[in-house]
Every structure is written in C-alpha cells, then in structure tokens.
Amino acid sequence: EPEVTQTPSHQVTQMGQEVILRCVPISNHLYFYWYRQILGQKVEFLVSFYNNEISEKSEIFDDQFSVERPDGSNFTLKIRSTKLEDSAMYFCASEAGTSGVVFFGEGSRLTVL
Amino acid sequence: GQQVMQIPQYQHVQEGEDFTTYCNSSTTLSNIQWYKQRPGGHPVFLIQLVKSGEVKKQKRLTFQFGEAKKNSSLHITATQTTDVGTYFCAGLRMDSSYKLIFGSGTRLLVRP
Questions:
Q1: Which residues in chain B are closer than 8 Å to A60, comparing Cβ atoms?
Q2: Which residue of B lies nearest to A35 if distances are taken between CA atoms?
Q3: What are phi and psi of A72, to 5 degrees?
Q4: Is the pLDDT of residue B94 over 70?
Q5: Residue A55 is nearest to which of B97, B102, B103, comparing CB atoms?
Q6: Gyration radius (Cα) of chain B, Å
Q7: pLDDT digits over A77-98, tens only?
Q8: Burial code of B60-81, b = ≥16 C-beta within 10 A, e = fewer?
Q9: Which of A21, B43, B64, B100 has a 20 to 30 A CA-CA distance from A7?
Q10: CA dist., res. A30 & res. B96, Å (int)
C-alpha cells in the first residue's frame, strides 16, 4: 500500500539552528500538507501546498517556516531559526485531490534544546 | 475561525464496555473524517462521512454524521485493549486546500 514517508524520524537541534524535515508524499497525490502536534495536544494545521505553491497557511507558519518541492517527489519543511516551542512532532500528509482523504506520514519528532 | 470541539478529553473504560466520543464544529462541514492515533504513532485514517445523517459501521465501530453536518460521533461497542489510542475527528473544508481542522481528540484507555 502506498504511504507517505518522512525523514528523519527524530532530530535534536540547538535553539537558533536551521532544520529541514523531508517528506515523500504518495505518488500521484496533488495536495501536500504539514501538520504539527505538540506532545499531548491536538494535530494543528501548518500549511498546504498545491500546484507548486502554498495554497493556505496557518498563523503558526510564520516567516521562520518555508516549504519547498524541489523535485517531483520530495516535499520539505524548513525552520530557519528554531525556537524551544518548535519542539513537536511534525507530520507530512498528502491527498489525491479527489476523495478528500488525507494520508499521514509517521512523523518527524523535533526536539529543540 | 473554524473550530472543531471534541469531548470527552479522556475516557477510561473496562474492557467490554462501550465508548463514545462526540465532535462538534462551529461551522457546517463538507465532510468529516475520523483518525486513530496509537501512543507514539501517527494519525491513521479510519473513515470519511460525507452525507447529512450518514451512518457507517466498521465491525464494532459506528460513525454518525449529524443532519446539519456540524456534529459527528464515534461509538465503539464492547471495547478491547487494542482499541487504546486517541481518536480524532477532523472536519474538511472542500476548497482549494482540502484543509483538515482537527478536534482535540479523545484519549481512550481500556482496562483489561
């Protein structure tokens, strides 16, 4: 069964450092997302991406965040200068553009020290 | 902005007891999806409800979508220890982004 894959599974970084989280969405899917889940809390929408551009972003997705689809398969989330409060599980997700069913990757746990 | 509320926050049941979680949106939804997240895991899609008043069943799980498409429920009959996890509802906006708004989740614990 096709799945969304994410790397790394866990990243530990110092405050102020740049972090790039990588995702390979399901092939042929058209919509790509990043969601965030702080430990013990609900899943929060960060950004959606369609047709090679951001289609929507939340208030969490400030100037420190950026997304890119550098080639036909990868979808990356960059945090330019990490803060302690960026520590969370980051989920990549994709949707085919037909059913509305969103499939999630297993997540990348970011720990900012 | 659009909000999705979910209750209860926690439910601790004896194995074999039933369990229900309720979801309520501040706005009318295009559809609603339910996800299960095991401890340490990622959200796994369970089901999607689209039609007003729709009821769907998956073995011991029954999902309902309200007539006004603003609320939904998940009912588990005769819980098992394998049902442990957090159940999230997520309302979908069928616009250009297919953005999911997640409820706060209900964490289910099952005593064997």
A1: none
A2: B100
A3: -75, -5
A4: no
A5: B97
A6: 13
A7: 999 999 999 999 999 999 888 7
A8: ebbbbbbeebbbbbbebeebee
A9: B100
A10: 11
Predicted local confidence at residue B95, as pLDDT: 58
Retrieve residue B77's tokens: 């009959």
Q: What is the pLDDT of residues B59-90, one digit of tens each?
A: 999 999 999 999 999 999 999 999 999 999 99
Cβ distance of B103 and A42 shorter than 8 Å: yes
Q: Enumerate the residues of chain A whose CB falls inside 8 A of the CB of residue B30.
A: 100
| Lateral strand order in the sheet of B55-58 | B4-7, B19-25, B71-76, B61-65, B55-58
Report which residue type is found at A14: Q
Q: Chain A contact for B101, CB < 8 A?
A: yes
